[in-house]
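Dear all,

This email documents one entry for the complex benchmark we are building for the journal club exercise. For each entry we list the sequence lines for every component of the assembly. Then comes the predicted three-dimensional structure of the complex as a token string, followed by one or two observations. Please use this as the template for your own entries, and keep the labels exactly as they appear.
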Amino acid sequence: MISFNLLIAVSLAYVAFLFAVAFAAERRAAQGKTAWLRSSAIYTLSLSIYCTAWTFYGAVGYAARSGLEYLTIYLGPTLVMIGWWGLVRKLVRIGRTQRLTSIADLISSRFGKSTGLGVLVTALAIVGTTPYIALQLQSVTQAMGVFAANSGEVWGPSDLNRSAMWVAMGLAVFTLIFGTRNLDAHERHHGIVLAIAVEAVVKLFALLAVGIFVVWGVAGGLGPTRALIDASAQAQWAPMPSRWIGLIFVSAAAFLCLPRMFQVLVVENADERVLSTASWAFPTYLLLMSLFVVPIAVVGLDLMPAGANPDLFVVTLPLREGRDGLAILSFLGGFSSATSMVIVATLALATMVSNHIVAPSWLNARMPGAVVSGDVRRVVVMSRRISITAILGLGYIYFRVSGGGEALAAIGLVSFTGVMQVLPAMIGGVFWRGANRWGAVAGISIGFAVWAWTQFLPSFGVDAMLSQAVFERGPFGLSWLRPHALFGIEGIDPLVHATVWSMMLNAGAFVLVSVLTFPNPLERLQGAQFVNVYEYSSGARAWSHSAAQAEDMLVMAQRILGSSEAQALFRAEAAAQGKSGLLPDVTPDFLSHLERELSGSVGAATAHAMIAQLTEGAMVSVDDLIAVADEAAQIMEYSSQLEAKSAEQERTARALREANEKLTAVSIQKDAFLSQISHELRTPMTSIRSFSDILRDGEVDDTARRRFAGIIHDETNRLTRLLDDLLDLGVLESGQVQLNIGEGRLSDVLDRAVMASGIDPARVRIERTPAHEGVTLRTDLERLTQVFINLISNAAKYCAAEKPRLRIKVRQTQGATEVDFCDNGAGIPPEFESMVFEKFSRLEDQGKAGGAGLGLAISRQIMTALGGDITYLPGQGGAGFRVSLPAAAAAPAP
Amino acid sequence: MGRRVLLIEDEPNIIEAISYILSRDGWTVHTHADGETAMDKVHQGVPDLVILDVMLPGRSGYDILRDLRAEAATAHVPVMMLTARGQAKDRELAEALGVTRFMTKPFSNAEVLETVRALAAP
């Protein structure tokens, strides 16, 4: 005989242990050590809150009453997890990219962040979950009652109520502490998750222990147990296919739609990779949980006195056998099942209530803009705490009101079918872009009404909520509205009836209204985000990819701001962060800065939407945004074209100014040139005319006449030479020069030039180095000779040395041939060096030397035409010129 | 002795031609071929007429004209300018500086002789 006080002591110790576990997890999470908290084992175990007290105690009772049908409750979730790739993964991905906090958030968010839908789903969840919480309180207190009775106490209803209240209060405290500690965007609760994982282990261990004890310790092994099962009434019950299918569907739907399941399945999931492990581990867990259900039920029915509650066999059987320790373990298993469910359900509901009902009302009551973030935070925490307390209070009140009348499993199924009404909107929302909020509102409302009418209200029992008359003849005599025979279709199992009708009408209304109405733009956007979540998000988490994010933002910003401006913006930001390059960290400051920049171009709303889309981790990347940006860019382009045009005009004007200046300069040069030519032509003509006048006049003696005729002759030659030079230069400058390419030796060309220059070898000594002159040239030899003549005669004319000397030097460099002509005269004053190749650059005081100053200009033109060059060599002691012949024009002599 | 004409010109053949025709007509012709030292030559004995080329080594005919007009002793001396650069702006510049007669090369001997006779007449 164990005392009831021992049970209470053990329970309190267990609760203290759970608190310690939760605190430890929170502390580790605060230190950033969350890796193991996010492991697939913890995740799988946290999913086991699906197995509540209903499963722990109720499954045995279920089997005792309905045979193997209890298995359907496990099969539904098993199918969902095995098919995780299809739906669960998508929900998890959406949950993370959209930072969903609850199933109400999912529905509201998908359908254009509708507040109304959030309220509707929250209300549905509260109505569907409150009985379930009451159920947990009931199962725990019933089990406590068993121990109390075992200690010789007799518990009345007030004792049960009092213990239920204490349990509810204890759970409220636990949830308040660990459920409202942090309000981060992801709503992850490491303490709670680890505590329920521990509880999952405890309840599995307890159930297995009881099962093993019952089979081997009580029944006497597998063989006798089998015989007992075969002999039992349960073995004779044939399953009802429609009910089986209905139950599997309902449990599968509930697994997805129950607020607490969505909490652990989606919200608490930090890494979708754990899903693949959970997809086999969780069904295995369920299999183990169901393994000993039938043996316990059969053995219990066989051993326990008739009328004993089969829901409590897992506790009463060990107690009957005197196994107090096992009984306490079993109680702890049931306690774990109940508390973990209540904690998570309360947390999930409180989040929904505070996010979708309290916070929006509070914000509406305030002037917009008066919101300070600290204020909001305090309000959210407060509203969440009040919600937790209220929900547990509601569960307790329901427990008191219902009086624990119905069997546990029945309440569970009613609850399942209720929350299932969210399913069409959820599935449609994530797979069908056409789904819209009016469809969701219509579907959920109609489904909710049908469920309430056909299942929820009747579940209280005949004459409790609905009168006998309503069941038999329908409300107000409308027989087609009878709760168990809608539209006059009778003879269907009430559960199947409720499931089929509520789902059919729900889904039908959802689809029909969605098709008939139009979604607003935000819904369209969200619809695309949800349905195509894989395209918009990468598997990795948003912040770990901030470089890629920055890159996407840069691409977007370039579209909108233009590349140079966008790059300048990003570079400046990167520099401010102490980074080089164009990709700064995506900090909140930078985001708001970027948003301001963008809003200048595309308007605040669009800019905000763009930034938000990029940062929510929903990388609407690049293509979608580019489409939006392109539209804006078209408008921008028009104005930038205008800018470009004015810039172009400015460029044209500048070009015109430059051209004008150039033309002016050219015309000045041309004036100077014409003036020079005029002077050069008129001077000899003046002499010719004057002397021919004198000769014509007669009265000139023979000597004078001969002399004057000679002058006329010389001046005529001078004139002819000048004209030749001018024509030559004209041809060379126009580039129309005809080259007469031939081969010859450099030495021969030099010989000819020295000869033709008419230089007096007695007056000017020419120094050559014939050894170097053995080069074969392939060029226009006539033109080259002309250049050499010019240089040699210039030296003869201008070298003022007492003993003029001209040195002609040949050099081979890099295949080119250089011929230098250096005299020993005064050279060219530095200030004239730069002009020696200009036309008429003849130094004024050397005018008498003849020639118009075109020689070097012509020489340079010739050398250019031959592909070579002629340059002045300063610092040679006298005037020095270098003629360079290109490699192609020169080859060493054979 | 005849009236003195100073010919400032750097082209030898032109110097010879003008000297010949003026000497034959009875004028005393002094010649000078350098612009730089032309005013020194003037100061050695103010001529009755100056025949001035524009393009001279060292110093242009315009500068010499300006100096001649600037000095009281020579301000009244008739100046006959000869230039091979026969553009309008050359003439305008010369007239602005106070040239007495502006002639473009090539000239006819008769024209030169007539002008000298007209300007340097006693």
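Observations: The radius of gyration of chain A is 53 Å. The beta strands of chain A are 481-482, 485-486, 741-745, 765-768, 775-780, 805-813, 816-823, 869-872, 880-885, 890-892.
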